[in-house]
Amino acid sequence: MGEMHENIESVDEAIKIWEGIPATRMNGIKSISVVVGEGWDSTEFEAVVGKRMDLEMLNYYSEVTANHRAMDMIKELQEKIADLEVIGEMPNQQEAPIVRPRRHR
User: Fold this and answer.
1) What is the pTM of this model?
2) Longest dimension (CA), the chain
3) Which residues of 13-49 are buried (b: 16+ CB within 10 A; e: fewer)?
4) Average pLDDT of the segment spanning 85-96
C-alpha cells in the first residue's frame, strides 16, 4: 500500500525516510515500526502511526519492552518527532519473557 524499508539502524535514518514519503503518494498512513527479532520469530511494534504514538499498546508487546535497544529507540522517536501526539506513558522496563518447553506425557 505504500513503501517499506528494512534494516534501518538509527532513529535519525528512520525519521528522515518517514518525513521523505510524500503525502500525495500515500494509500495509507505512514508509520515507523520497531522490530525485535528476525524472521518468523520477530515482533513488530508500530511506534509511530501518522503523528501519533500509543505507548499504552506497549503493554501487549513484552518482547519489545524487554529489549533495551528497542525501548531506547521508542524514547528517541518520541523526543525527536515534532508535534507527535503521545498516548499514555512508557511502561516499566520488563525482563525478557521466559520460554519454557512443554513436557509431553
Assistant:
1) 0.79
2) 59
3) ebbeebeeeeeeeeeeebebebebeeeeeeeebebbe
4) 79
